[in-house]
Design goal:
Layout: H1 3-14, H2 20-62
């Protein structure tokens, strides 16, 4: 390969090589983009956190526990009514 061919090859690639100025511009643009994305992420996380707190507060204030089952006052004919046990009596105590 002759020197003139090598120089011609290098000169053909020079237009596509980034200079320090190009890299500085790219770095500045990249930093701005990262800064924008960071603030978008912080806003999103804060918004979701507030929504979760609001939902938890709403549930805690407005959701009632289930009511205990109602005790029927009259039993159907095919079910026998429960019989109350006799009252407990204590054996007489003897004092010495």
């Amino acid at each position: 390969m002759e020197l003139s061919e090598r120089v011609a090859r290098i000169e053909g690639k020079i237009d596509t090589i980034a200079t320090k100025e190009d890299l500085a511009k790219l770095e500045a643009n990249f930093r701005d983009w990262i800064n924008e994305q960071t603030w978008k992420f912080i806003k999103w996380v804060t918004g979701v956190g507030i929504a979760l707190v609001a939902a938890s507060f709403f549930i805690a204030r407005n959701v009632q526990p289930p009511a205990p089952p109602a005790v029927p006052t009259a039993y159907p004919a095919h079910i026998a009514a429960p019989v109350a046990p006799p009252p407990a009596t204590l054996p007489p105590t003897s004092t010495p």
